[in-house]
Every structure is written in structure tokens, then in C-alpha cells.
Design brief:
The complex is a heterodimer. Chain A has six helices and nine strands; from the N terminus they run βααβββαβββαββαα. By secondary structure, chain A is α/β, with parallel strands linked by helices. In chain A, the strands form two sheets. A six-stranded mixed sheet of chain A has the order 1-9-8-7-2-5, covered by helices on one side. A three-stranded mixed sheet of chain A has the order 3-4-6, with no helix packed on it. Classes of the chains: A alpha/beta, B alpha+beta.
């Protein structure tokens, strides 16, 4: 199936980092790591006549390694699966299928940029002709609810389309963190103005 | 002149020297020998440079052979060679320096795509499968998400590209698809009496273009009108 503009769909979702931590068959140790994560890679469930099959798209191991290499104390990356349960699904289509991800709303901008960087590294000049499929679940930390942003379209359009969609989404639902940032900025300007006046 | 530099000059003049399979074989053997020496002396940078030359040489040979195969009417064989070019370019691209000589790679990439778009193939078989166990092609350590080995897929170690070796997999289904990952798996008809493959495709577009071209590096352009 060929993707068609606008390449993006947004729906409400019940999935959160906590819901995955609670419902997954994982050890207490991993559960702790999952709950601390800002960027959680989750498995897909079910393929044709195998409804219980849990899998990750081909290349998820590389993606996880790439993201782990960039993580720091303010941005923690985790994958919701035990080592021995990890399976990759190789699909037949010439498509870059990126594992579904849950991020907290504070980290959504970073997540989109990192995935954009990953696509660039992975596809190089093939960005023009390859399609990308990615589900991003954005979790509203305060209200314990989420929205699922699904992108299926050309790799070359990914960054623009997803960034714009997320921007619109945040404009429609005022983000308390954005507001805080705005207020902080405003008070900083006031401080600078006052300091100048004093001089 | 150093041997590797001489090979680079040979690779750079691919458009004027044409198809010389015997020379190409000598070049490939020489590169293997040079790479062994570089690895022996622990010179990873040189080993990587030699690997790049091997890939460039292979891409050029495949393009020249594909052109010849199309000329002779061996369209499916040429199709497989064009796919090889695509894969080799994909592997080489991240390692090419921007100030590198082009080695006619830009021309080859463009014309490979153009030839491919003229082919009538529109149905391919393609499997979907679960990879249960994979090994690193460099150290043969099982691939692990939390405790990976130090090798990165796609990087060059001792003059060889790191990949994954699938040792255990489960096929879930085989689909017919217009956009396959593996382009060589073209769906052909079968003669019910002889059980042999029948090439039922119409190659008139490919034939039309190749009849107008004298040399593999003759420039040509195409565009599909928007309807």
C-alpha cells in the first residue's frame, strides 16, 4: 500500500509507560528501568494468524544502540522486553519500519529529532525513495493519557510533517511545561531590562 | 606510483576503458593481497580504503556486465546485476569521502535507477520472517540488545563490512508484493507441461533504450509524464 498525504494520523491512546510496565511480562529490575524511561521502545503485537506474537521491526537493535549511545541523565532510553524474548520481524516491503515508541511530552521534540537523525544515517541518499512507518505515543505526564501520532510516508518528508503535526497538537492542547518555559523566559527578559535600567 | 593509487586511477577511467573482465579480475586479486598486508600490519584505515576500492570495482563491473546483458537480451540476469549495484552502493555510501573521485558512481546510480524503472516487473514474492538468533559477522557473538559486542553493523573491520548472520529464523508467510525488499524474486509463469519458467514479460521499453545506446557510459535521461 502506497502512503498518501498528509501521511499522518493522530488518535487518542490509552497506552502509557506505566501501562506497558504493568502489563508486560518483565522482571522487577527491568520494570524499574521502564518506569524511569523518557523514551520507551515497545513491541508490536500480532501478525496475521499469530495474534499473540510480540516482535520488533528489523533494525530495532541498531536503533536502541544508537539511542542508548546518546542518552544522558535527563534523557533515558529503554526497551520493553527481556533479552531472551527479543525478536525482530523482517518484512518483505522496501520500507523503514521503526519500532513504536512512547515518550513523555517533555521529550517529544528530542525524540523526533533523534529519529530524524537515525533515518538520515540509515537511508542516506535513499531518503527520497524510501517510506518510513513510525508510531509515536506522546504521554501527558500530568493527566496520565496519551495521543498516538502515526507517520507513514516518504523518509524525506518525515521531519517536516511530524514536527508540524506535533506543533499543532501542542498549540491545540496547551502544554504546561511550554507555558512554564515561556514564563521563565519572560521573567528573564524583565530581569535583563531592570538590570539595564539600573546601569 | 603506489599500487593502490594505480588501482584508483584505473577505477577513475572506467568510462573510457570499457569492459575489461580480465583486468578487473587482476585488480580484484591485487586488492585482496593489499588488504591482507594492511590487516597484517594492523592498518585499519588502509584496509578500509582498500575495501572501498573493492566495492567500487565490483559496482563498476556489475554495471558493465548489466549493460552487456541487456544488449544481449538477458533481461532478468541484467535485472539481478542492477539489484547488486543498488545493494553495493548502499553498503559503500556511508564510507565514501566527499572529496573522493566520483569513479562514475553518480552516473551508475542514476542510470541503474533509470534502467530499473523501464522494466515491466510489478509482482515479486517476498517472505516475512522472525529472526530468532543472529550472530555478529566479525566476532560471531550472538546479537544482544543489552550486552552487544563492540562491532557496529555496516562498519569496516579488518577490511570487511560488519553484518549479522541469521542462524535461526521462522518464516511467517510469503507474500506477492509490488515493492519487495529483494528485487530478484520476480514472479514468473511456469509451463505446466515442462515445469520450466516462462519469461512472459514485455521488455520493449528496455529494448527501445538499449538499441539507441552504443556505450555503457552514454548519457541518457528519461521522465514519466504525469497523468
Amino acid at each position: 500500500m502506497m502512503p498518501e498525504p498528509p501521511y499522518i494520523t493522530i488518535i487518542n491512546s490509552q497506552e502509557t509507560i506505566r501501562s506497558w510496565a504493568d502489563s508486560s511480562d518483565i522482571s522487577a529490575n527491568l520494570r524499574e528501568g521502564v518506569l524511569r524511561a523518557d523514551f520507551l521502545i515497545i513491541p508490536s503485537k500480532g501478525y496475521l494468524d499469530r495474534p499473540d506474537l510480540l516482535f520488533f521491526p528489523e533494525g530495532t537493535e541498531n536503533l536502541f544502540r544508537f539511542l542508548r549511545g546518546l542518552q544522558n541523565s535527563a534523557f533515558r532510553v529503554e526497551i520493553c522486553v527481556e533479552e531472551e524474548e527479543y525478536r525482530e520481524l523482517a518484512l518483505h516491503a522496501d520500507l523503514l519500519f521503526i519500532a513504536s515508541t512512547i515518550v513523555s511530552n517533555a521529550c517529544v521534540g528530542v525524540a523526533v529529532k533523534l529519529i530524524s537523525e537515525y533515518i538520515q544515517r540509515k537511508l542516506g541518499s535513499r531518503r527520497q525513495e524510501t517510506n518510513v512507518k513510525w508510531d509515536l505515543i506522546i504521554q501527558d505526564d500530568k493527566n496520565d493519557r496519551s495521543v498516538k501520532v502515526s507517520y507513514f510516508g516518504p523518509a524525506s518528508e518525515y521531519n517536516t510533517v511530524v514536527s508540524q503535526a506535533i506543533k499543532k497538537l501542542f498549540e491545540a492542547q496547551p502544554n504546561p511545561q511550554k507555558r512554564t518555559r515561556h514564563l521563565m523566559q519572560r521573567s528573564r527578559w524583565r530581569y535583563i531590562k531592570q538590570a539595564k535600567k539600573k546601569r | 606510483m603506489e599500487k593502490l593509487d594505480a588501482i584508483r586511477v584505473y577505477l577513475a577511467i572506467v568510462d573510457s576503458r570499457g569492459n575489461m573482465p580480465e583486468n578487473d579480475e587482476i585488480i580484484q586479486r591485487l586488492l585482496i593481497q593489499l588488504k591482507k598486508e594492511a590487516v597484517f600490519y594492523g592498518d585499519q584505515v588502509r584496509a578500509k580504503e582498500i575495501w572501498c576500492c573493492e566495492q567500487i570495482s565490483s559496482i563498476q563491473c556489475n554495471y558493465l556486465q548489466a549493460f552487456e546483458a541487456i544488449k544481449k537480451g538477458f533481461y532478468y540476469d541484467a535485472w539481478c546485476l542492477l539489484e547488486r549495484i543498488e545493494i553495493e552502493v548502499r553498503h559503500l555510501e556511508p564510507h565514501l569521502q566527499s572529496d573522493d573521485n566520483d569513479y562514475k558512481l553518480g552516473f551508475i546510480i542514476k542510470h541503474t535507477r533509470q534502467f530499473q524503472s523501464l522494466y515491466p516487473y510489478n509482482l515479486f514474492s517476498s517472505p516475512a520472517y522472525i529472526k530468532k538468533k543472529e550472530l555478529c559477522s566479525v566476532c560471531h557473538t550472538p546479537i544482544s540488545i543489552r550486552n552487544p559486542c563492540n562491532h557496529i553493523v555496516g562498519e569496516i573491520y579488518d577490511g570487511e563490512q560488519c553484518g549479522k548472520i541469521i542462524v535461526e529464523a521462522e518464516i511467517l508467510e510469503i507474500s506477492l508484493t509490488p515493492e519487495p525488499f529483494c528485487k530478484r524474486s520476480v514472479a514468473f509463469m511456469i509451463d505446466r507441461e515442462t515445469n520450466e519458467l516462462i519469461d512472459h514479460y514485455d521488455y520493449s521499453l528496455v529494448k527501445y533504450v538499449i538499441d539507441k545506446l552504443n556505450q555503457p557510459f552514454d548519457e541518457w535521461n528519461m521522465s514519466w509524464p504525469e497523468i
